[in-house]
Design a protein that fits this description.
This protein has helices at 12-23, 41-44, 60-69, 83-92, 107-122, 142-153, 198-207, and strands spanning 2-7, 27-33, 50-53, 73-76, 99-101, 125-132, 157-158, 163-166, 172-180, 183-191, 215-217. The protein is an alpha/beta fold and 223 residues long. It has a six-stranded parallel β-sheet, with helices on both faces. Strands 6, 7, 8, 9 and 10 form a five-stranded mixed β-sheet that branches. The protein is globular. The relative contact order is 0.16. The chain binds nicotinamide-adenine-dinucleotide (NAD). Nicotinamide-adenine-dinucleotide binds at residues 7-8, 10-14, 33-36, 41, 54-56, 59, 63, 77-80, 102-105, 136, 172, 197.
């Protein structure tokens, strides 16, 4: 059994992750860390094989460092923090744990990113519109930034700015619109329930400890 601690366990994503970990056959929920529950991650870290972090942009990096310093692997879903600093932290940490980060754990969103790269080779001009619930702290979303990076690497030209919509009623949605001579092509992904992220989170929990690199970004690398 993989012993999992959820950091941010009282949050919207954290609660869904706790349920998923409790529902899987090969994982056990070792602890719920969240200041809102009166439990600090540092106090329970010794009980985990893997920590799953869905917290806030200003706490994710500190949590990730604490995990790696303790030799515990960490799966990070939090967005809006410095990925370069996270990579540095992971690559200079004492041996033991690995760090896996995904801006989006939903298979549909990962496929949208994959297909966008193929389209960009033929229709490079595009714009990204991302739409999220109104309590999301960062903009543009981590998914949109990652999509733009991948499209750019495939030869596409993502027009600036990325458009961020924040409204009650939304969960997590993204559209990529490609424009060519006399035609457009639109791709859209909608996470309408946070359960959409859970198979990806569990896959990362199972694989993070055996990854070949200390720091890995993107669910596509695990599929
Ligand atoms: N990667 C993905 O697929 C994906 C999907 C959805 C959301 N997200 C991201 O996940 C993050 C969390 O989103 P949410 O909607 O659940 O937010 P939320 O505000 O509902 O929950 C965040 C929780 O983190 C807790 N927290 C704050 N500091 C902490 C610390 N130091 N240690 C432990 N817990 C701490 C808060 O008390 C809160 O309960 C955001 O960055 C969001 O963008 C990622």
């Amino acid at each position: 059994m993989i012993r999992v601690i959820v950091a941010g366990a009282a949050g919207r994503m954290g609660q869904a992750v706790c349920e998923a970990v409790e529902g899987a056959d090969d994982t056990v929920l070792a602890a719920k860390a969240d200041p809102a529950l009166g439990v600090e991650l540092a106090d329970v870290l010794g009980e985990a094989d893997v920590v799953v972090d869905f917290t806030t942009p200003d706490t994710a990096l500190g949590n990730l460092r604490a995990c790696l310093d303790a030799g515990v692997s960490v799966v990070v879903g939090t967005t809006g923090f410095d990925l370069g600093a996270a990579r540095e932290a992971a690559e200079s940490a004492p041996p033991g744990g690995n760090c896996f980060v995904a801006p989006n754990f939903a298979i549909g969103a990962v496929l949208l990113m994959e297909v966008s790269q193929t389209i960009a080779r033929h229709m490079p001009e595009c714009e990204i519109v991302e739409l999220h619930h109104d309590r999301k702290l960062d903009a543009p979303s981590g998914t949109a930034k990652r999509t733009a990076e991948l499209i750019g690497a495939a030869g596409g030209n993502v027009h600036e700015p990325i458009h961020s919509v924040r409204l009650p009623g939304l969960v997590a949605h993204q559209e990529v619109i490609f424009g060519g001579e006399g035609q457009t092509l639109s791709l859209r992904h909608d996470s309408i329930d946070r359960r959409s992220f859970m198979p990806g989170v569990l896959l990362a929990v199972r694989k993070v400890g055996a990854l070949p690199d200390r720091f890995t970004v993107g669910l596509e690398g695990l599929l």
